[in-house]
Amino acid sequence: MTSDQESTEHKDFFQFDDCTRSVSTLHPLNVLLTEIIDYAGLFPPSELGMSQAVRNYARYLGSEHAWMLGRFVVPATRLMEFARAAQDFLPCDPTARPWRLSVLLGSDIEREVESVLRFNELHREPVNTGTAVVDAIELKISHAEDVRRATETIASLTEVTAFDIYFETPLADNLSELIHVIAQVGARAKVRTGGVTAEVIPSTSSLLSFIAACARANVPFKATAGLHHPLRAVHPLTYEQDSPSATMHGFLNVFLAAAFLRNGMNMDQAARLLEEHDAQNIRFGADGVAWRDHRLSVDQLREARAKLACSFGSCSFEEPIQELQMINLL
């Protein structure tokens, strides 16, 4: 194991710096993986310092797999620390694409959104600071009223459409209600798929219920934590030598299950797909992807990524790539 010591459509989906690649010409694997990894190197189990995480992100943007890289994830309370660490790396060319950030909000939503707006204004033009933009915010909620209150607070400060807003939902009895309210306010959902202890890894049925609820309500979602392996398998939970191990979900499982559910797969089949551990049962061809006897076209896969399964946060960018290479998908 290595460390990186290291309902609206997804607005910027499949935009590239050189603007030369057409989505319609991409191989299905590229469609599935483009901008899929939001880099969360600041968070466990990597827990890098800000300077190292920023340097990593800059390096990944210049790598051959940069097309898989999404946003840099940072807490609102560390946004100015990010600005100082990134000032020598942010693009100064006005034609270059800004660095994109997803900011995690805490309890003081009003103050933290105001800090995000100041950051965006300061980094709008490349002079002095380089360009960056916070175009997504994430926050935890427990009740439907939390969604309404947070949305109203954000709307009082700026256009709600200024951000992709992700509400991290507990996998609890009120899940359907929460997803319904998230759909009503035009926001997105977020699910925690693991962590550094086995107890926080959701069951297949709980995770499937979340994905299915999002698919029914046309609510885009992202995943976070413990999803940096392509396929479901037993892995160490941290990078420590004496780390305990547990069965962890795989990002191919989650994103393909979402795509198939959106296109009519039943819950029993989707549950089996979430538990698939054999890479040989997943086949990418020129015209789509197949899991066992089930198939999706490129268009179906693209629509699922654009409208349902957006990205996953990972403290490692290199590890998912290395493991995809190990199973001969990259």
List the helices and strands and how they pair.
Elements: H1 28-33, E1 37-39, H2 50-61, E2 69-75, H3 79-86, E3 99-104, H4 109-122, E4 132-140, H5 144-157, E5 164-168, H6 175-184, E6 188-192, H7 204-217, E7 221-224, E8 233-236, E9 245-248, H8 251-262, H9 267-274, E10 282-285, E11 288-291, E12 294-297, H10 298-307, E13 309-314, H11 318-326
Parallel strand pairs: 1-2, 1-13, 2-3, 3-4, 4-5, 5-6, 6-7, 7-13
Antiparallel strand pairs: 8-9, 10-11, 11-12
Helix pairs in contact: 2-3, 4-5, 6-7, 7-8, 7-9, 8-9, 8-10
Structure description:
By secondary structure, this protein is α/β, with parallel strands linked by helices. It has one domain (34-255, 309-325): Alpha-Beta Barrel (TIM Barrel). It is 35% helix and 20% strand. The strands form three sheets. The chain has an eight-stranded parallel β-barrel, surrounded by six helices. A three-stranded antiparallel β-sheet has the order 10-11-12. A two-stranded antiparallel ribbon has the order 8-9. Helix 2 links the parallel strand 1 and strand 2. Helix 2 crosses helix 3 (79-86) and helix 8 runs antiparallel to helix 9 (267-274). It is globular and about 55 Å long. The two termini are 18 Å apart. Mean pLDDT is 92; it is low at 1-24.
